[in-house]
Amino acid sequence: MAILSYIEAVTLAMREEMKRDKDVFVLGEDVGIRGGVFRATNGLYEEFGENRVIDTPLAESAIVGVGIGAALYGLRPIAEIQFADFIFPAANQIISEAAKMRYRSNNDWNVPMVIRAPYGGGVHGALYHSQSVEAVFTNVPGLKIIAPSTPYDVKGLLKAAIRDNDPVLFFEHKRLYRLVKGEVPETDYTLPIGKAEVKREGDDVTVITYGLMVHYALQAAEKLEKDGINVHILDLRSLQPLDKEGIIEATKKTGKVIIIHEDNKTGGVGGEVSAIIAEEALFELDAPIKRLAGEDIPAMPYSPPLEKEYMLNPEKIAKAIKELAEF
Amino acid sequence: MAILSYIEAVTLAMREEMKRDKDVFVLGEDVGIRGGVFRATNGLYEEFGENRVIDTPLAESAIVGVGIGAALYGLRPIAEIQFADFIFPAANQIISEAAKMRYRSNNDWNVPMVIRAPYGGGVHGALYHSQSVEAVFTNVPGLKIIAPSTPYDVKGLLKAAIRDNDPVLFFEHKRLYRLVKGEVPETDYTLPIGKAEVKREGDDVTVITYGLMVHYALQAAEKLEKDGINVHILDLRSLQPLDKEGIIEATKKTGKVIIIHEDNKTGGVGGEVSAIIAEEALFELDAPIKRLAGEDIPAMPYSPPLEKEYMLNPEKIAKAIKELAEF
Amino acid sequence: MIPVNSHQSLGLQDKDVLNMYYYMLLARKVDERMWLLNRSGKIPFVISCQGQEAAQVGAAFALIKGEDYILPYYRDVGVVLVFGMTPRDLMLSAYAKAEDPNSGGRQMPGHFGNKKLKTVSGSSPVTTQVPHAVGIALGAKIKQERLVAFTTFGEGSSNQGDFHEGANFAGVHKLPVIFMVENNKYAISVPVKKQLPVDSVAVRGAGYGMPGVSVDGNNPFEVYAAVRAARERAINGEGPTLLEAVMYRLVPHSSDDDDRAYRTREEVEEAKKRDPIFLLERYLYDVDLLDDKKHQEILDKVMKEVNEATEYAEHAPYPDIKTIMDHVYEG
Amino acid sequence: MIPVNSHQSLGLQDKDVLNMYYYMLLARKVDERMWLLNRSGKIPFVISCQGQEAAQVGAAFALIKGEDYILPYYRDVGVVLVFGMTPRDLMLSAYAKAEDPNSGGRQMPGHFGNKKLKTVSGSSPVTTQVPHAVGIALGAKIKQERLVAFTTFGEGSSNQGDFHEGANFAGVHKLPVIFMVENNKYAISVPVKKQLPVDSVAVRGAGYGMPGVSVDGNNPFEVYAAVRAARERAINGEGPTLLEAVMYRLVPHSSDDDDRAYRTREEVEEAKKRDPIFLLERYLYDVDLLDDKKHQEILDKVMKEVNEATEYAEHAPYPDIKTIMDHVYEG
Ligand SMILES: Cc1ncc(C[n+]2csc(CCOP(=O)(O)OP(=O)(O)O)c2C)c(N)n1
Ligand SMILES: Cc1ncc(C[n+]2csc(CCOP(=O)(O)OP(=O)(O)O)c2C)c(N)n1
Ligand SMILES: [Mg+2]
Ligand SMILES: [Mg+2]
User: Fold this and answer.
1) Which of these, A126, B108, B96, A304, lies nearest to D108 by C-alpha position?
2) In whole numbers, what is the pLDDT of chain C averaged over residues?
3) Min Cα–Cα distance to chain C from D310, Å
């Protein structure tokens, strides 16, 4: 079993799927000879040629819209949006078209497409290269949304997304690209979309989170272990559909829930998770449902002290968990 | 005091503000000689001329983007998006530009613009003329979002929005345009953005809602009154910022909360409201926080039985309230 | 106004021309029936092809059914009929009945789609189909299949960003796609001079490295020839073409519109003199392909189809409400 | 390569030309310093104007400071310097310090903005400034004020829908706006032939009813003349102009890029022979406006400014973290 970085797992999943199915192809800005600005498509151009690794003009609505057309034709496009912050010019194609195609045609047409987008901060990316945009799309039935945290999950979920017959937004945390390494089997495995995973067992406080924050929560949990606080960590992995049973089970485990995300608090995914618990597992709770999330500012500033102030980290997380444990 | 319909209140607010401030102008599709496809700008072209009531080309990103430019120049544009369903081509201008301008320029530039959009269903509008799109924008700090339910609130809040120095999305429920009439003072009043209003006092169950559903909830409450169930109804009116204190107070009033909206349940505004309660008023609750909302389908079908099935109505609402009362 | 004996030189046989007439008339009569049904409260909405039938039918005749993909816009009754949609299908859609092959009654009429007929499902936000057409053409290029994607949209809609992005993408990759603007002079109430700073959308072709051709949309032969030429180019790997068919929207924007608010009756009456159905009729009489008897025969056939379709659709069942959650995702 | 004695006939005085040279050199030296600071780990990011200074400074000289609005894109160091931004301002931004007038250190360098200087705040998603420029021009028209809005963007960015929608709007309303494409041949790694199916973005002007003019972006006088003419047109109510200045991006896309992956060193070396700073220097020597002594004087002045700016910015304070929530909304 190889040890791969998060981004290597992204590349590997695409390479394997492109080998496996000649209908899979990649399109986006700088994905060709450059191999992507983050190098996620590194080597694919050389291996599969410019017919299947297509450098598009600089136009996101066309990247997604042309991808939709190719998907309708029977191909399986993987569209790269260079930074998640630049997905909004394509919002209409994603929300009005990709998400609604199957429903509106009464199951006649469908859009088997993956839209990959690096998101998240902590990389000196400033207001427009650091955003978490996932919540904008969680009110849109017809889309699936994935935000994995480990190389293992990346490979399994990206492969599942590529084989899925509906449109999938696949959000890759760019800070994780090279920060995190992990074991990734060479086998051809997929993971189920819509299933959360317990990344740590514990019985004092339940953390529900995803993306980079999974790792910060794990670090916080290590620390708290020493103080005798046992933290249970649920990694959502899929944000649409949410794993309701997984969420409720994790709630029952401790009766104290804190939802953590890097994205702005208001209107974030945490609200939906909290509402599910408050609706379906209220009497399991021993404490208010806490949310620890990014401040409600338009986006993350560039200036290092402000970026640091915005970002959650293991210390802030440990503090919040501790408070909840002591509630 | 005149009795006006909801849409007449829209028109009146714009007319008064255009008279009051020559920097206010209107732009959008068919807003000129046609007076808007719903007739919301009826008479404005004749009264203020084509320099201040501008029929734009059919291009929403330009309607909003050009509006932003005019606002930067010092004018106060009111942009009409013909149907809220067609706001997505402008998503990038709204989310990346209007919402972030003040923050990104460190308070140097700002965008005093209103974007009006008729939303909601029950009008045989089918998948693309019935949508509730508000939740897509509630994760975007820098925007204000208003969704009024009565002619009185329309006038006061639209005038407040026009005078606000930040971008405001003003969602008008198109089913209410001619359905609801009410007293609207001739005086020049505004209402505070971000303040919910108790539309009915009661002490058994608290309904938190907005838009058309306020009226359906009021009808349901009438009915339930006879069964001895007293319903407390909070009309959010503003969806961004949410009136946290108002929400918590309304929760305390009864200890049983049901949040109702026409929009899809998952990722809807109800999730955020529920999360606020679960975080800040958990111990006031005597029952799980319920959400009654649109089914999680891409949008509302055309076929009359399906449209009816999708829409909430006083009966469905009464039933849900009753269940909660009996909890 | 259609030059006498012009169809032969374009490779159109007499029977093709009569067939064109049949489809144009069929489109018109389906449309007229829908207005009647709407005004009598039987269906909630109509959006019309009236005035655009020549362009639609002429264009569709130049395509190859079963091979080419079409991505029509909401007025394209003529296009979809030629491609195999039946009046019954259209009526089922107007009545929003379960059997509607376009959407099972989920979408408004005018939102065409049928995979079997290579008719791609359309939505209401305008111009979104343009990149889809380009994507289909890209797919065909990748798979090395010889076909074209044909898409239409209004002149107002050509001002959406998606037109620009789609046309540019197609130009760069020299894709087999045909963009046809149906310039009917209005976008709801907004006249073309408030939509466009140029006289013809076709001039924009040059900016995308493709021919831009403007033709008389009231003459089905001219449109046929232009689309045929564009198809040739596309199939031969020479890339996309931007066509503009110029005509006039003879009726209000839709059943919800009242066009008296923004255009004079004189203007409309003037345009009616160039009604494409009327022009083709005159042509057919002039070249002796039609006489009163034959004319009546065709009309009877068309009306029979329209009547049967209406009858069928009116009595067909609505979708079961239990289906409301179906097909959000696969399975 | 700049024809000898060509500046006078364009109405440029000797001192203007020397001034242009000063600004171009200043832009270059600020930029070079930022690379040094980046490579030595002092600032996280640079995005460069190198190779585009002639177009930027030439254009800005044709505008009227204090009246016209500029909506520059991230490479426009030359434009903003002429409009009054100082090297210190730019360095404060590069260091993300509190005093940065562009954003108080909130945005990356290259995201210019300063209301006092009528320099409109820009973001990262490309081309969004195009409709803003049109809106400013619309505002000026509504208020009957005589000024132009000038905006720039790359040739890759011209393929965004916002370009089309903005240009069309400006064309329809004949607004006083100037669109200038800085065609530096690459959009990050993607060469212009994969972005555009045409040789010049300027050909698109015709589609919006406006002149489309392509000029040598290495010649500041040519750009100056073209912008001046466009400004005349605009001010006289004749509407917008689309300009394209053709040049070459001499350095990688940004400090995060490595251009060896996608273009040869020979190509870059070849382009360096047309480095606009070098061309203008040669011109100034040829027309006797510069000699070694004067040259050194200017260079010294520029370097002094750059040094002082760096020094100042390096020691300036960061924004207080307590300000992080400020200015989401008014008040
Ligand atoms: C993105 C979007 N904005 C607005 C509308 C509302 N709308 C429907 S049709 C129409 C006018 C279309 O005009 P044109 O493109 O000329 O086509 P025509 O109807 O004249 O055939 C408008 C504004 C829409 N459907 N989609
Ligand atoms: C909407 C959007 N998509 C992608 C990007 C990422 N990006 C930044 S610059 C750039 C290339 C721009 O090329 P061009 O317009 O030619 O300008 P140049 O950098 O060459 O001056 C890209 C793709 C972006 N900033 N915005
Ligand atoms: Mg039209
Ligand atoms: Mg470039």
Assistant:
1) A126
2) 97
3) 42
Half-sphere exposure of D214 (CA within 13 A, CB side): 13
Chain D residues closer than 8 Å to B104 by CB:
103, 106-107, 111, 113, 121, 123
Categorize the per-residue pLDDT at D1 as very low, low, confident or very high, splitting at 50, 70 and 90.
confident
What is the domain partition of chain C in residue ranges?
6-323
User: Distance (Å, rounded) from C-alpha D196 to C-alpha D204?
Assistant: 11
Q: How far, in Å, CA of A263 to CA of D47, rounded?
A: 27
When pLDDT is cut at 50, 70 and 90, the band that residue B172 belongs to is very high
Q: What is the pLDDT of residue A1?
A: 78
Instruction: State how far the Cα of C128 lies from the Cα of C157, in Å rounded to an integer.
Output: 9
State pLDDT tens for residues C275-328. Answer: 999 999 999 999 999 999 999 999 999 999 999 999 999 999 999 999 999 999
Note if B232 is an active site residue.
no
Angle between helix D161-172 and C161-173 (nearest 10):
120
CA dihedral B88, B91, B93, B94 (to 10 degrees): 120
Task: Name the CATH superfamily, with its identifier, for domain C6-323.
Answer: Thiamin diphosphate (ThDP)-binding fold, Pyr/PP domains (3.40.50.970)
Q: For the residues B113-139, what does the mean pLDDT come to?
A: 98
Could you say which ligand is closest to the alpha carbon of residue A127? 2
Report pLDDT digits (tens) over D137-195: 999 999 999 999 999 999 999 999 999 999 999 999 999 999 999 999 999 999 999 99
Distance, in Å, from the CA atom of A134 to the CA atom of B139, rounded to the nearest integer, reads: 9
**Nearest atom, ligand 2, residue D52 CA:** 21
Enumerate the β-bridge partners of residue A209: A235, A260
pLDDT for residue B200? 98
From D106, D164, D262, D312, active-site residue: D262
Q: What number of other Cβ atoms are within 10 A of residue D114's Cβ?
A: 22
- Catalytic option among A129, A173, A232, A261: A129
CB–CB of C181/C243 below 8 Å? yes
